[in-house]
């Protein structure tokens, strides 16, 4: 997992439920070191207090020397540097004592105060916490102090000051207590420092190395909590710190009495410190036992690296924290999610701090998983959604109400009343879905009477392999999935696959092996998931490539909801981003739609008009694809030579891969009605070629109304035309075909020489309807070219279903031809004849005249 860090605290109200968006609105802060680094003169001074803020008799009213304190803020008086926060200890505590020492030497406090403040130079070196005690801390303060008369602007003040300090030489303070207040926050007592006796040389230019231990005790705990919360919420832009002390002084054996001193400092802007930067260097989730009865919870091991820009040394005892998350409403109490503890933390000056934190989630609170009012999401949904989408999230850390026994009570009191918002960078799960396949798929199309809202649906087995983050080391079982998925083809949106209903799922953990990380294989069966096509042009391009055998890769971009069984119980993860490829194999192995190989049988005539036939037939064909489809209603145009000559309709059929038998199809033959004059010309020509055994083809084309409820699909497919050989009609007798496979509608013939007649055995493909021959004008040939005789007959006769005999038709012999001699020679035997002519046929109200050419007709010759 990538390192996570925060460069600025994202602050909000302590009990405010924080989303990533609300957190980001909080003003950021720059980092401010606690102390100046070695070699830098401390840049602090007393604050100028405006006259309208303090009463003129208030001891805080600055003397005329107050202006000279600005020299403390500018080093040599020319370069301004940032003040450092530990000046509260190093300057306020120590400075108060030093000023009091100097004041005690003279009888002219105003002049001396001015000299002391302008000439004083304090260089803090280090502030370290030697020990955390039950009542506070023992701090070690190290600094360098001297008086520099050259910094005093007034000549007379400078002269008197140098003389007085030369006479006094050294001054010693007795043990004293320095109290620090926050006047602008109700005069809160921030703390008290017990300062030991200090001896300093106050002569001009004499350097004093100060090194002492001070016992620091916290003051008003409630006040400190209010101040801390205001700082965390970004409401602190200025801090006025006031230090007060009563200091007893002496110079040698001479007692100088007790001096009361008050000094103030102002911190504002970038001088106010912020939460330090941090990196999450380790994050690991795993199962842990949480009770003696075998109940288990979720553990988290976190390692942090915090930036330490301060010369502070400190050893922090083990601490306990509550981890909280935002609730539904802005003003609802935060939800306690987990317990966290730390080991001993050793802080070294100017060295990054390594912190190991262990957390335990014992159970998921009901308030965390319940949907919020007027929302479909729970607080947990919002938290996980932000995290999984890579957005910044915020958790809240508060001192535990059940602290470690090693934690002093005063530390627990402060920590338990302060809530710290901690920014947590989201984790984008790029390429989480490693594989996405759909097998045993079935497409369902709406019927003719379907509602307009009815859409095509997809059923099938979804198999998804998802990579698991390396931080996730606990068992998980997927029980159900739900998703809304956009379907793209070549980066263009095809449509929307609606999986808004929960689908049962199973999962299997695949352990890490070789260089491959662990993954989770999930399987789910979807049933009739609606597929809404939004771009018919994209669909047309897709189907065209599919029909030509090309593999099609559909891109699925989904928001997935997953129900998980974990050690914490059932958990719903919403809006998990998922993306994968859904491969659709085209018609493979070089096959085309001609591989349908349809065969038509059991033909019925359902109705006729003068120009049309309505037929019904059972069709057998081969589906060369691996996909199945359930079709409620589907209509297709039938074309020949580019002209529409009819249409076919299938209702409530199921098409499976491979052989499909006895599919009921209705068709309409109406060349003039569909194709106009051109169709009226092409129709009879096609019938003539077909019954004569020519190699004919039919084309099939989808149109806008092929699926009435989905005109976009029909429109998309309308530019695709599939051409196949014309299916052969099966007839009742096995011997109804010639050796070359051509259909035989005239099975045999018998010629009678004496009566000059011929009688034919006719085979009709119609099982339920009678066909009528209205007239015949045909010539029989021997050896393909030699005429035998001519038949002209204008009286209608019927051709019954199956095999039937025609009436004896009169023959006008070609007596002087070779063909006639061949017939006479075959008297009592057989010969093979050809026939060419025109035939008028009628079926119900429909009639048509076609030409016919037949060859290899077996003819018997009788006397």
Question: If you had to describe this structure to a student in words, what would you say it looks like?
Answer:
- With 863 residues, the protein is α+β, with helices and mostly antiparallel strands.
- The protein folds into five domains: 64-267, no CATH class; 276-424, Immunoglobulin-like; 433-584, no CATH class; 593-725, no CATH class; 746-862, no CATH class.
- Helices cover 15% and strands 47% of the residues.
- The chain has 13 helices and 44 strands.
- The strands form four sheets. Strands 20, 21, 23, 24, 25, 26, 27, 28, 29, 30, 31, 32, 33 and 34 form a 14-stranded mixed sheet that branches. Strands 2, 3, 4, 5, 6, 7, 8, 9, 10, 13 and 16 form an eleven-stranded mixed sheet that branches.
- Strand 28 and strand 29 (613-623) form a beta hairpin.
- Helix 4 (109-119) crosses helix 5 (155-168), helix 6 (221-232) packs parallel to helix 9 (409-415) and helix 10 crosses helix 12.
- Residues 1-83, 104-108 and 734-741 have low confidence and may be disordered.
- It comes from Calycina marina.
- Residues 740-851 form the Tag1-like fifth Ig-like domain.
């Amino acid at each position: 997992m990538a390192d996570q860090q925060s460069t600025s605290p994202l602050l909000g109200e302590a009990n405010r439920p924080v989303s990533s968006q609300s957190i980001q609105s909080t003003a950021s802060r720059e980092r401010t070191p606690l102390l100046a680094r070695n070699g830098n003169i401390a840049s602090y001074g007393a604050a100028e207090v405006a006259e309208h803020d303090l009463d003129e008799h208030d001891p805080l009213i600055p003397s005329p020397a107050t202006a000279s304190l600005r020299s403390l803020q500018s080093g040599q008086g020319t370069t301004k540097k940032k003040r450092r926060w530990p000046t509260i200890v190093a300057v306020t505590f120590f400075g108060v004592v030093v000023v009091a020492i100097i004041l005690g030497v003279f009888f002219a406090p105003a002049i001396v105060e001015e000299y002391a403040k302008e000439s004083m130079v304090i260089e803090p070196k280090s502030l370290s916490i030697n020990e955390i005690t039950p009542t506070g801390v023992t701090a070690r303060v190290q600094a360098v102090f001297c008086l520099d008369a050259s910094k005093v602007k007034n000549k007379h003040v400078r002269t008197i000051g140098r003389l007085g300090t030369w006479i006094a030489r050294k001054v010693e303070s007795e043990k004293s207590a320095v109290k620090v207040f926050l006047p602008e926050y109700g005069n809160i007592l921030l703390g008290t420092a017990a300062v030991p006796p200090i001896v300093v040389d106050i002569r001009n230019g004499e350097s004093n190395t100060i090194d002492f231990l001070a016992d620091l005790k916290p003051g008003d705990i409630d006040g400190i909590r209010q101040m801390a919360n205001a700082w965390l919420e970004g409401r602190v832009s200025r801090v006025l710190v006031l230090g007060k002390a009563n200091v007893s002084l002496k110079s040698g054996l001479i007692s100088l009495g007790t001096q009361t001193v008050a000094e103030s400092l102002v911190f504002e802007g970038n001088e106010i410190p912020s939460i330090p930067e941090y990196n999450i260097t380790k994050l690991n989730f795993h199962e842990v036992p949480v009770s003696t009865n075998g109940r288990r919870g979720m553990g988290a091991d976190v390692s942090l690296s915090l930036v330490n820009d301060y010369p502070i040394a400190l050893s922090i005892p083990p601490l306990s924290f509550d981890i909280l998350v935002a609730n539904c409403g802005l003003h609802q109490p935060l939800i306690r999610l987990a317990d966290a503890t730390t080991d001993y933390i050793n802080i070294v000056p100017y060295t990054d701090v390594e912190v190991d934190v262990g957390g335990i989630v014992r159970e998921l609170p009901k308030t965390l998983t319940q949907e919020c009012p007027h929302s479909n999401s729970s607080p947990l949904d919002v938290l996980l959604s932000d995290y999984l989408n890579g957005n910044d999230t915020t958790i809240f850390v508060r001192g535990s109400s059940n602290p470690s026994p090693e934690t002093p009570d005063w530390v627990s009191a402060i920590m338990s009343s302060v809530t710290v918002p901690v920014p947590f960078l989201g984790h984008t799960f790029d390429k989480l879905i490693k594989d996405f396949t759909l097998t045993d798929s079935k497409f369902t199309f709406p019927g003719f009477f379907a509602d307009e809202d009815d859409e095509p649906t997809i059923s099938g087995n979804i198999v998804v392999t998802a990579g698991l983050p390396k931080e996730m080391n606990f068992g998980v079982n997927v029980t159900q999935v739900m998703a809304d998925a956009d379907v793209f083809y070549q980066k263009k949106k095809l449509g929307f696959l609606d999986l808004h209903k929960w689908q049962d799922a199973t999962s299997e953990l695949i352990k890490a092996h070789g260089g491959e990380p662990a993954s989770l294989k999930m399987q789910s069966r979807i049933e009739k998931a609606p597929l809404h096509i939004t771009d018919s042009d994209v669909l047309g391009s897709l189907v065209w490539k599919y029909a030509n055998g090309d593999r099609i890769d559909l891109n699925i971009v989904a928001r997935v909801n997953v129900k998980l069984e974990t050690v914490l119980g059932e958990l719903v993860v919403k809006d998990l981003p998922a993306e994968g490829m859904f491969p659709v194999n085209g018609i493979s192995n070089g096959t085309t739609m001609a591989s349908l190989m349809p065969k038509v049988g059991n033909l019925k005539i359902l109705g006729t008009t003068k120009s049309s036939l309505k037929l019904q037939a059972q069709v057998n064909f081969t589906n060369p694809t691996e996909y199945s489809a359930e079709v409620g209603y589907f209509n297709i145009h039938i074309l020949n030579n580019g002209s529409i000559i009819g249409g076919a309709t299938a209702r409530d059929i199921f098409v499976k891969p491979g052989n499909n038998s006895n599919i009921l199809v209705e068709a309409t033959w109406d060349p003039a009605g569909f194709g106009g004059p051109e169709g009226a010309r092409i129709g009879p020509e096609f019938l003539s070629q077909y019954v004569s055994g020519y190699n004919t083809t039919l084309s099939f084309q989808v149109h806008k109304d092929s699926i009435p409820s989905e005109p976009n699909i029909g429109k998309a497919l309308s530019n695709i035309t599939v051409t196949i050989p014309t299916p052969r009609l099966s007839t009742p007798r096995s011997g109804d075909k010639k050796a070359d496979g051509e259909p035989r509608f005239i099975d045999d013939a018998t010629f009678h020489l004496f009566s000059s007649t011929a009688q034919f055995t006719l085979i009709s493909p119609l099982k339920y309807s009678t066909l009528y021959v209205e007239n015949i004008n045909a010539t029989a040939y021997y050896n393909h070219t030699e005429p035998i005789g001519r038949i002209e007959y204008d009286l209608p006769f019927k051709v019954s279903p199956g095999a039937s005999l025609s009436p004896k038709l009169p023959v006008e012999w070609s007596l002087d031809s070779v063909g006639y001699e061949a017939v006479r020679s075959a008297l009592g035997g057989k010969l093979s004849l050809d026939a060419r002519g025109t035939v008028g046929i009628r079926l119900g109200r429909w009639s048509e005249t076609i030409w016919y050419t037949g060859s290899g007709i077996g003819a018997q010759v009788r006397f």
